[in-house]
Design a protein that fits this description.
Number of strands: 11
CATH architecture of the largest domain: Sandwich
Largest sheet: 4 strands, mixed
CATH topology of the largest domain: Immunoglobulin-like
Order of helices and strands: HEHEEHHEEEEEEHEE
Strand order of the largest sheet: 6-3-10-11
Number of domains: 3
Helix content: 25-40%
Radius of gyration: 26 Å
Low-confidence stretches: 36-44
Length: about 250
């Protein structure tokens, strides 16, 4: 009888411990959601630099009406919220100041080993952000001829900005408006020295909830998405290489 009683108590204690763990797990779900949602919001937040300002304007897609009239006509008057403003009719617009930097996405490529078109066409995956890294295959993520671990220097009168290519041969940095001397050195390759002009961003950046591609000016694309800088290196004794710039998306 005593043995049975002990087994019964042990079973009760075990189930009680499991219930406590379950309660703690349920309590942690909203906490985890709050942490993750705030982290995502922080990553997506637009940083303001000196001279930048935020304005609220009528949505340029629905003209402030909040619904998509085209879809309403197609579906017998059924109202569908505008995807750009999610039905609010308003959009935050960032008006860049003179000191807002331009985002630069780049790659250093062995000209002989890379595709022949890299000299005149921007590789589609030069900007390997989180979204692209999930959607692209391993082969698509790779840039043929890309050189890892290469230092890139952007020099100007006000100082210099340095970057280093990752394992995929890519690099990223932000550059203030100005004229830069770009220098790249790699073992077995001729030293590249070129110039890069970064103009002050002027077009307002519309912070839509969903990406709007049509109707965007080249200047606005540069303000929001940045530019791509492709650096093609020549083997030693075969040339001096080349630097090409492209708007994103190309």
């Amino acid at each position: 009888m005593r043995s049975g009683s002990l087994n019964s108590k042990s079973s009760t204690h075990g189930s009680g411990g499991a219930n406590v763990k379950l309660v703690w797990l349920l309590l942690m779900i909203p906490v985890a959601y709050l942490v993750v949602s705030r982290s995502i919001a922080h990553l997506c937040e637009q940083r303001l630099y000196d001279g930048d300002r935020l304005e609220v304007r009528d949505c340029r897609e629905c003209l402030g009406k909040g619904h998509d009239e085209k879809y309403a006509r197609d579906f017998n008057g059924l109202g569908i919220n505008c995807m750009a403003c999610l039905g609010t009719g308003k959009i935050q617009v960032l008006v860049p100041g003179l000191q807002r930097p331009t985002q630069v996405w780049g790659a250093v490529i062995d000209w002989q080993a890379g595709e022949s078109w890299t000299s005149h066409q921007c590789p589609k995956d030069v900007r390997l952000d989180l979204e692209n890294s999930i959607l692209l295959s391993t082969e698509e993520k790779s840039l043929r001829g890309a050189l890892p671990g290469i230092g890139v220097w952007f020099k100007t009168d006000g100082g210099r900005v340095s970057a280093k290519t990752d394992r995929g041969g890519r690099f990223g940095c932000k550059l203030l408006p100005g004229r830069y001397v770009v220098e790249v050195e790699a073992e077995g390759f001729a030293k590249l020295q070129s110039t890069l002009e970064i103009e002050a961003l002027r077009a307002p950046v519309w912070l839509e909830k969903n990406t709007i591609l049509h109707g965007r000016s080249p200047e606005e694309r540069k303000s929001k998405d940045g530019i791509a800088v492709i650096i093609l290196l020549e083997r030693s004794g075969e040339g001096s290489g080349m630097l090409r710039t492209f708007l994103l998306p190309e």
